[in-house]
Amino acid sequence: MANKTSNQMWGGRFAAGPDAIMEAINASIGYDQRMAAQDIAGSRAHAAMLAATGVINDSDAEAIREGLLTVLSEIESGTFQFSTALEDIHMNVEARLKELIGEPAGRLHTARSRNDQVATDFKLWVRDQLDATEAGLLALIRALLGQAEAGADWVMPGFTHLQTAQPVTWGHHMMAYVEMFGRDLSRVRDARTRMNECPLGAAALAGTSFPIDRDMTARALGFDRPAANSLDAVSDRDFALEFLSVASICAMHLSRMAEELVIWSSAQFRFVTLSDRFSTGSSIMPQKKNPDAAELIRAKVGRIFGANTALMMVMKGLPLAYSKDMQEDKEQVFDAADSLMLALAAMEGMVRDMTANREALAAAAGSGFSTATDLADWLVRVLNLPFRDAHHVTGALVALAEKKNCDLPDLTLADMQTVHAAITPDVFDVLGVENSVNSRVSYGGTAPTQVRAQIAAWQERLG
Ligand code: ARG
């Protein structure tokens, strides 16, 4: 274990050990132990490469390999004793390896530094999160497609400014989120491709004079290639920042959807009923069924945005290459990743389980003069009015309906002709919401034919 007076890993030139405050500010083991599996994978790849290139002998490499497996199983079973004096996961693992196998453990750090080690471990950890995000997004997209398919032709009001605008279909609304989360999916994949270069072998900052094989370690750890510049390799945290920015945009989408679920599940809207599994009750008001999961998703995005900003602040202005500031990269990313995974899973569960109230959606679709644009378009198409005039005439008809306290289809032909004498009875065809949505067949429009085509395209894409 650690020497009481000076650190066994770097204490050669030190006469005294650190002050307790120094130890407290310096230690990262409290959180970077989450990268234990990645650290051991990196060390195993490094040791195997050192043996293959003749830098260490095979029996030492074998002792290291077996020792590392023991360390991993101790960590996984919870028996490992983490030490703050040993600062971080790298030195904790190496010190335990020394206890287990003795002298060969000291050869593992040949041609390596904690700088390339931590960059590698952290990249592997973030890469796993990108993979988990991809899986979470795919599950959510599938749940949305299920909802869209079930209600491809159900009518509901479409909103702008949260005011009734034009009727749309439930399927169309669900598919809007599929597009949003689909872009998140493509950003995740794009970030993963770009980040997949291995820092290991960059050593402290300048590379090494040992005859290492960086292609071998890169391959062993599932990277596409070794990072090409050793200074950049140890000081690059773009991969973590890209994860956080991808996560932020995705979280922003999640919060928008969460907000709609909060509104839609209210007694005033009743557009959806959330399942009991994804709702909570009130301890005082027996009638309540609260959309807590949606509210927490809406709130959790703040932590993700915060992490993104925090890491930007850590990295800004840092000179090349490694600075200890960069140890502050991890906690934020860990917290943001945990929040994102939970939010994605909760959203998927809510979407999968929720019931759209077809009747309430249809009733709302027909109110608020939602087919006024269809009426204006009819005046253009049939009476050949310029659109601006048609807009004006329609406005007068809406005002008339408002005065009579009814909706547009409830006006009589005579009522309408007081506003414009040339209006004919077939105007009523376009005032129904079904006709309205069925007519919007332009590419990407809300007509069920369009929606079904988009659903099919996505199902094909997802395979
Ligand atoms: N715990 C450190 C970190 O997270 C590891 C790298 C330490 N490197 C150093 N030169 N002190 O960044």
Automatic annotation (TrEMBL):
Reactions catalysed: 2-(N(omega)-L-arginino)succinate = fumarate + L-arginine
Main location: cytoplasm
GO CC entries: cytosol
Gene Ontology MF term list: argininosuccinate lyase activity
Domain spans labelled Fumarate lyase N-terminal: 12-306
Pathway participation: Amino-acid biosynthesis; L-arginine biosynthesis; L-arginine from L-ornithine and carbamoyl phosphate: step 3/3
Class in the EC hierarchy, top level: lyase
E.C. code: 4.3.2.1
Gene Ontology BP annotations: L-arginine biosynthetic process via ornithine
Stored InterPro entries: Arg_succ_lyase_C, Argininosuccinate_lyase, Fumarase/histidase_N, Fumarate_lyase_CS, Fumarate_lyase_fam, Fumarate_lyase_N, L-Aspartase-like
UniProt entry keywords in alphabetical sequence: Amino-acid biosynthesis, Arginine biosynthesis, Cytoplasm, Lyase
Places the protein is found: Cytoplasm
Domain Argininosuccinate lyase C-terminal: 369-438
Record-linked HAMAP family: Arg_succ_lyase
NCBIfam families: argH
Family (UniProt): Belongs to the lyase 1 family. Argininosuccinate lyase subfamily.
Name used for this protein in its record: Argininosuccinate lyase
Protein source organism: Pontibaca salina
